[in-house]
Amino acid sequence: MKKVLRSSLIIVLLSTLLIACSSQGGNSNPSNNGKSNTGGNNNSQTEASGEQTGYPLQTDQKLTYWGEITGNLVGVKPTHQDVPFFQEWQKKTGVQLEFIAPPSGQGREAMNVLLASGDLPDLIEYNFLGDFPGGPERAIKEGYIVRLNDLIDQYAPNLKKYLQENPDIDKMVKTDSGSYYTFPFIRGDDYLKVFQGPIIRKDWLDDLGLPVPETIDEWTETLRAFKEKKGAAAPFSVVSKPRFFNDSGNGAFIGAFGVTRGFYQENGQIKFGPAEPGFKEYLNLFREWYKEGLIDKNVATADMKAVDSNMASGATGATVGNAGGGIGKWQPLVEGNDPKAVLVGTPYPVLQKGDTPKFGQRNQSFSSEGTVSITTALKNPEIAVRMLDYGYSEEGHMFFNFGTEGVSYNMEGGYPKYTDLLMKNPDKLAPAQAISMYARGSYNGPFVQDKRYAEQFFALQTQRDAVSTWQKTDAAKYNLPPLTPTPEESSEYATIMNDINTLVDEMTLKIILGSETLDQFESYIAKMKSLKLDRAIEIQNAALERYNNR
Amino acid sequence: MANRESFKQRFIRDFVLNKYLYVMMIPVVAYYVIFHYAPMYGALIAFKDFSPMKGILGSDWAGLKHFQDFFNSYYFVRVLKNTLLISLYSLLFEFPMPILLALLINEVRNRTFKRVAQTITYMPYFISMVVICGIITDFTNADGLINRLFMLLGYDGQAMLQKPELFRPIYILSEIWQRIGWESIIYIAALMGIDQEQYEAARMDGASRFKQMIYITLPGIVPVIAIMLILRMGSLLNVGFEKIILLYNPITYETADVISSFVYRKGLLEFGWSYSSAVGLFNSVINLILLITANYISRKVSKSSLW
């Protein structure tokens, strides 16, 4: 008996060891935190006066750079170092970079681990405004990143000039207390701010003799016709990861009832969409659509792949998506199944014909992703600042948007035209992917985005039409500018909103999928109040006031 | 042992006698010291407002604030209840399955069949959790495999992962499927150690195969079962978050949201290191209490225990 016990115990111990080992291995920490940071010793640079203006810079300082690889390149190139753009960037600026990339799509978790380790790289490309609880003020206060005001004054003439010329953008890039914290990504033209909206199968509409739907009633009719006459199993299908109907955050459909899923401003006051009566009407509409089978039955668990396959197989005739990553991706898919198929953008739905939609996707000129900050680990930041300023210089502007002349673009009559290497890639890369190999125009980064990128990127007429259709909203009036709670309020705010958003997601799905009645809406509002929604609104109102006073 | 030696003498003698065993033990001991005991010092941050730049000792004390936040949280009761229920159900339904499987395999006389059956049943254990959950999601879709089968029987297809009442069954059934073979290995090993003479004696006395199983095989592995049960009690509050997170969605939160997934949403995504440590510490303390209790009871009742 003893023997049995002993041998079994050994097995148990060994197996725990095995499991433990494998789970240790699974933690993919950015392990090469090895800091080849020679900056600390290089205090006495040759050009002590800081009058080093031309690129490439004369330096042997090597910087570590933490940043996620763009989704466009996932599966194409494994590391930054393999991407021609990043190789060329180092050559042009003369600064060597050592890249650390988190697993794709796990930037936030990886950042959490990185900060907790206390072992920081020199430069971090991260959204400190949206994805860091407490925002940039707290990141500076806790000692992760440095305040850049003096550094920009001294060493970043190009960015400084741009911000001086564009005071409204300058206001967004700063924090409430006037600190600069990052090298921003700026959408240089209104045309670049809108890229998402409802999409529909135009060929089906034509077959059925229906107009492009504008009002909610027309939408109901259209979806019904798709289901009955076109045999669509999931007439309307959307991505629900990470939250239900993820893109409703921008106000698609939900905006017809005058609300969004988050905060917005009306008459100078902050409002929280899910606590407004309009939200109940939205739930009612979707509840009925779901009951009638007009919405994908698996909507609660649908991810991008599910929607892709629904579109491709003709199970879905309408969705919400991007011009590039949506229409651009699905058009060839639907054509593969049905050569006549055409996808077009429709206006954001409204209640009364002729109304202007109140909400729609519309990014700010400064949206906080793709921005690069300097950490406290870098002792001698001059070179880093000069290097990051490159993107705002004239030469850097062309390089970031279009890549290298003669390789990825050619000047034709003063117009930078992408070469066939990008637009008709020999390795069968989609334009979005190919552009990301040689430039950052198709996503983001520390530079000012050029309209001429989008004009070429949206290769299909339907894409360009869609963007101009989607632009016709009042979103600019109701959307919030980039607000930040104070560092003191931030954790309180995060706790409240975490609980409330969980509640909102639950309420939305339960009511739409019919496991609870519509009357429950009021009791959910009461729960939100007990979770201190009013306090969150108060914090947001104060933040808006501080923003307006900047 | 007649003459009483001191502990030191006995240890030295034992060491000389079994030196290779001691050497073989080093990696395991080192693993526990490095990965389990050393980090305990970090548990300190549960009582602090941890800021990495200030370090563990330099951060400000927060007292029991994070524990209070957790206990007063709106969802505390629900996540605790869900965690306990999922644990208890899997103890009830999943725990006995590997024992049954081991007994069945033990009764099989054909060696090839035995080997094949064993291999097939423990294979799923090595499939990545993400893949398993992908398979589960596909199978339980409104038009997935399982629903197709139900449709043949005249039922309506429905997306099963959108039904809160189905979450626990799906979770536990898939758990059984994935772990049954792997967990049966230890019982099969224990079965090997049972003295064959007992069976011979029983056969002489005319005991049937079934009787042999009840009166010899089962009692033979009871100590192992007891140990496994005690170990299991020690992780009652640990429901792994990976599987939960990959399978749940807001509509199933009411039955699926457990402590670890709650901490993931709140701690990891919100950078609340101290808060998550506090919850982790709370978990560990409860688990420790459960483990000690279970061990105590087992020692009293069945005379087999961990210590």
Provide a quick synopsis of the model.
The complex is a heterodimer of chains A (550) and B (307). With 550 residues, chain A is of the alpha/beta class.
Q: Total strand count of chain B, please?
A: 2
The main sheet of chain B orders its strands as 1-2
Top CATH class of the largest domain in chain B: Mainly Alpha
CATH-defined topology of the largest domain in chain A: D-Maltodextrin-Binding Protein, domain 2
Note the total helix count of chain A. 22
How many β strands of chain A by DSSP? 13
CATH class of the largest domain in chain A: Alpha Beta
Characterize the largest beta sheet of chain B: strand count, sense, and whether it forms a barrel: 2 strands, antiparallel
Rg of Cα set of chain B: 24 Å
Gap between N and C termini of chain A, in Å? Answer: 78 Å
- Roughly what fraction of the amino acids of chain A lie in strands? 5-15%
Biggest sheet, spatial arrangement of strands of chain A: 2-1-3-10
Give the name of the CATH superfamily of the largest domain in chain B.
MetI-like
The SS-based structural class of chain B is mainly alpha
Describe the structure.
The complex is a heterodimer of chains A (550) and B (307). Chain A has 22 helices and 13 strands. In chain A, strands 2-1-3-10 form a 4-stranded mixed β-sheet, with helices on one face. In chain A, a hairpin with a 2-residue loop joins strand 11 and strand 12. About 7% of the residues of chain A have low confidence. Chain A folds into 2 domains: 211 residues, 3-Layer(aba) Sandwich (D-Maltodextrin-Binding Protein, domain 2), CATH 3.40.190.10; 239 residues, 3-Layer(aba) Sandwich (D-Maltodextrin-Binding Protein, domain 2), CATH 3.40.190. By secondary structure, chain A is of the alpha/beta class. Chain B has 307 residues and is mainly α. Chain B has 2 domains: 63 residues, no CATH class; 200 residues, MetI-like fold. Chain B has 16 helices and 2 strands. The longest helix of chain B is centred in the C-terminal third of the chain and has 30 residues. Chains A and B meet through helix 1, helix 3 and helix 20 of A and helix 2, helix 10, helix 12 and helix 15 of B.
